[in-house]
Amino acid sequence: MPSHATTINSQLGDVPSQARVIVVDISDIPSLAVDLTDDKIQELWEQPIQKVITELQDAHSSGCKRIVVVTPLIGMSGAAGYSAQAAVAEAARIVVKSAARQWGKDGIVVNAVALESAAYGIDESVAGPVSIAPRAMTNEVSAKGIVQWLCSEAAGDVTGQTFIVDGGSWM
Fold first, then answer.
1. Which is nearest to 110 in space by CA: 53, 62, 52, 65?
2. How far is it, in rounded angstroms, from Cα 113 to Cα 10?
3. How many Cβ atoms from other residues are within 10 Å of residue 111's Cβ?
4. What is the pLDDT of residue 105?
5. Which tens digits make up the pLDDT trace of 105-140?
6. Rounded to whole angstroms, how far apart are CA atoms 6 and 169?
7. 41-58 tens-digit pLDDT
8. Domains along the chain?
9. How many Å separate Cα 15 from the centre of its chain?
């Protein structure tokens, strides 16, 4: 069975040749992170972030002008029992901001899309209420439209930002 990251990536559609989409993969991170050894911390947290950094560097060196990192919203909202996933997601957003600042002078824009945690197989109810109102939209949420726009020339003046795609739950 493909990971949630693979499924999300397949739903985003084709992007221009000068663009790259990187989907953060948290599928191998357990929900509870207790009694961890140094080796396990390396495997759970450092390897996924190193993968994001390596993919960003590869996109930069191959001449991409638009880079989008898709990460779970759990990093922004948090949730009991999901600290490991939240740490990886939030670290990815910080790396996006750093890359945007560093590469902006070269005309490279880097942004993040924080996708509803359910797309990553995380039960959204574990985060508790993150909004004072019910979800604004009732349809299925897709990151395809915003990712396609961020990969286009039209989004050339937008960099270092995180776009939340969750149907209006987290406002």
1. 65
2. 15
3. 26
4. 95
5. 999 999 999 998 888 888 777 765 555 555 556 667
6. 24
7. 777 778 889 999 999 999
8. 4-165 (3.40.50.720)
9. 17
